[in-house]
Amino acid sequence: MYLNQHEIRSLLSKSFDNMVDYVNTLSDHRFTASPYGKWSAGQQLDHLIKSVRPVSSAMGFPKFTLRYFGVSQQPSRSYDLVVSQYLEKLNSGATATVPYQPGVIYNAQRPVLIQGFLAQKFKLDDKIRNWTESDLDRYRLPHPILGKITVREMLYFTAYHNQHHLEKLIHQEQNAHTWENQLQQLIF
Q1: What is the 3-state secondary structure (H, E, C) of 26-54?
Q2: What are phi and psi of 149, to 5 degrees?
Q3: What is the mean pLDDT of each run of 10 residues along the chain (188 residues)?
Q4: How many angstroms separate the CA atoms of 107 and 121, rounded?
């Protein structure tokens, strides 16, 4: 599926809003607890902020500076193909590189993290408005797992990445009784 700028902005907005809405439903314990050594909801939010910040920043650079990463000679891949290739990399063992890994998160950080996440949403949306459809396909940005991809592909990735982490949180919450029982057994 090939998405135009308007469709990308809509998809991104929805992915940010869905994550914030879900995080706001979690109890303090669920926001900070790390089940089975997985990232907590707070850590996932921190990771997403760290992931989108360089994208929104780079999209504000003069376009001639982005030539450093090369220009694409081919059209952007579809949303589905970018997602498929990302999932292949994850299944092959790819993980977040150090700059994108979250630290310890406390519940008191929740409002700041949500505010920071939404600030990145608005910053990214504002930057997208200054790009033409052809420029989204022409310029590339580096991705730590996917390599150099077009700006359009990076925006596809960002929308999917938010959704991917939301699905992980929902899955953790559906299995919460299991790890909560293990935590209680460990404490008591």
Answers
A1: CCHHHHHCCHHHCCCHHHHHHHHHHHHHH
A2: -130, 160
A3: 93 98 93 86 97 96 93 95 97 93 94 98 97 96 96 98 96 70 49
A4: 22
Both structure tokens of 43: 């850590």
Residue 114 phi/psi, 5-degree rounding, is -65, -45
Residue 38 contacts residue 132 (beta carbons within 8 Å): no
- Joined together, the tokens standing for residue 56 give 């929104």
**pTM of the prediction?**
0.91
The per-residue b/e assignment along 50-75, b for 16 or more CB within 10 angstroms, e otherwise, is bbbbbbbebbeeeeeebeebeebeee
